[in-house]
Amino acid sequence: MAITDWPEGERPREKLQQQGAAALSDAELLAIFLRVGVTGKSAVDLARDLLKAFGSLNAIFTASPEAICQVNGMGRSKYVQLQAIFEMSRRALAEQMQERDVLSSPQQVRDYLCLRLGGLTREVFVVLFLDAQNRVLAQDELFSGTLTQTSVYPREVVKRALHHNAASVIFAHNHPSGIAEQSRADELLTNALKQALALVDIRVLDHFVVAGNNILSFAERGLL
To answer: Could you say which of 63, 65, 101, 157 has the lowest number of CB atoms within 10 Å?
Structure first.
């Protein structure tokens, strides 16, 4: 059955207008952007197929074009639409972090980092540079490596922090393995960076480990 044949209150667009975006399921939100389905399947059915194939919205947005196109009804144009949505979401969150104290909205930082790092297949190390009011001045991907190892140099981190005139920093790196747990190497690196930055009076507020939609905070675990 086509969506146009559904009761008006159950159609994603009308439901959003009446109840707000938060009332829609992941599949219904995706369906609004997909607009049309394929023969025998509505846009909502196609959205459900995507969620079933990839497991989550984040996994869909970070999937390769080849993987997306393997789902019946999907093609390059729809892949481009999904990428545009994903990038707009990241930029909107980044803008919000530049406008307010990130410590007053820690979940926003977590959401941004999951979008930024959660779907990557290589390990990367990112630093958020903050001013004295804890607003984000800049965000740099300083190092990248293989699936299991990244080389991070304290000297380069200090250099970039001074360049941005940062008062504090937040570190984040991803674990492509999918396990959001700190390693002993992560702890040693964090301590080395903290000591190096302390010499120039720059605080380390947190270090996050991101694995898909899961995220670990060093500060919450008392590791800082």
So the answer is: 101
- What whole-number distance in Å separates Cα of residue 53 and Cα of residue 48? 8
Query: Concatenated DSSP letters for 145-170?
Result: --SS-----HHHHHHHHHHTT-SEEE
Does the pTM of the predicted model rise above 0.85? no
Taking only the tens of pLDDT, the chain with its 224 residues reads: 456 556 555 677 888 888 888 888 888 888 888 877 777 788 888 889 888 988 888 788 878 889 888 988 888 888 888 888 888 887 877 777 666 777 667 788 888 888 888 878 889 999 999 999 999 999 898 888 765 556 788 999 999 999 999 999 999 999 988 888 888 889 999 999 999 999 999 999 999 999 988 899 999 999 98
Residue 71 gets the label, from left (phi > 0), alpha (psi -120 to 50) or beta, of beta
Strands 124-130 and 136-144 come out as antiparallel
Strand partners, 124: 144
DSSP-derived 3-state class of residue 142: strand
Buried b (16+ CB within 10 A) or exposed e, 37-72: beeebbbbbbbbbbbebbeebbbbbbbeeeebeebe
Whole-angstrom distance between the N-terminal and C-terminal Cα of the chain?
56
Q: How far is it, in rounded angstroms, from Cα 157 to Cα 169? A: 10
